[in-house]
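Students often ask what a 'structure token' actually looks like in practice. Rather than answer in the abstract, let us consider SEC12-like protein 1, a protein of 373 residues. Its sequence is given first.
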Amino acid sequence: MAGDGEGPPAGVAGKVTCAAWIRRPRAGPSVSGSRSLLVVYGRGATPSSPPFLDLLAFDTAACALDSESEPLLRVVMGEEGADADTPSAIAVHPAGDEFVCATAKGCRLFKLLYDDFCINFVSRDSPPLQSVGPQRCLAFSTDGTKFAIGGEDGHLRIFHWPNLSVLLDEPKAHKSFRDMDISLDSAYLVSTSTDGSARIWKIDEGAPLVNLTRSSDEKIECCRFSRDGKKPFLFCTLVKGNDTVTMVLNISNWKRIGYKRLLRKPISTLSVSLDGMYLALGSCDGDCCVADVKSMQVSHMIKKVHLGSPVSSIEFCPTERIVISMSNQWGAEITKLDVPADWRVWQIWLVFLSLFVVSAILFYTFFKHTNLV
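Now compare that with the structural description of the same chain:
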């Protein structure tokens, strides 16, 4: 299963600067179920190697990359020592067939072409994205019809996907972007600023809806919408003095519901699993924790995974209880979570079948040994 992209460039590969999961839309006969996931790594430039993207297969059974030293595909992003072309963030379309990669110059769009034995990258022209400058935040909506970018210059752009028609263009949305997310129904976008403010945007109307309230000594930093489709909440990390908590807001009125101190230290990033069951938080000193959304209790603590370096991002695997976490110093780390596994459809039917068989046996035994006369 090899691609036809460029071979590995000479020199020592740079460290991983960003990473993302890709769930293959179709797994051919050459790909087993345990290898239907891919990981795309962005690597930085070195004096002897250009910046590039690596595409690697992920073995869910072994919870490991199949071969990190020999990627399925490698695409050069620039020239040796060209830091401006170094990938800084990657957002993958929910369909798994394309992704956007941000650099200091702007964003590049890549199409993934699959067949039974081969995968290829194809770079696509996207003038609305190519010269936007450095972006702090990239986000696709869950249904894949919206794409948003938030820049270091505070410029917010929301596009309709895939034609990239502009839904919202606000040059002064923030002083500079801190974090961003799109709601499950694609109706709202939440964004936070480096100055501690946060705003809600109505996407279809292309306009700001409300500024989240905060006191003068509070800063709202990370933000994520709930994903389970049942409880429309917004999760935000709130800093007040030396204290950091995770607060929950009701998106019907944007009022605060409550607070929880999940990670007793400054928080650098926040993420929600695709099924909405878990929250992941990364700290400024390299720790991570995963909390159950229903109970708001920590289910898994990962100590010193990035050893003193702020965790810049955490992304849940689309199909497994696994996360990729990133830091500028240590690059990417893959961690299998010690949390309850999902009930799959076949498991539920197996339980029903077992109950039916047990009931039939009990019914037969009862009537066999019962005298009805």
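One point worth highlighting: The first helix runs from residue 127 to 130. Ask yourself how you might have guessed this from the sequence alone, and why that guess would often be unreliable.
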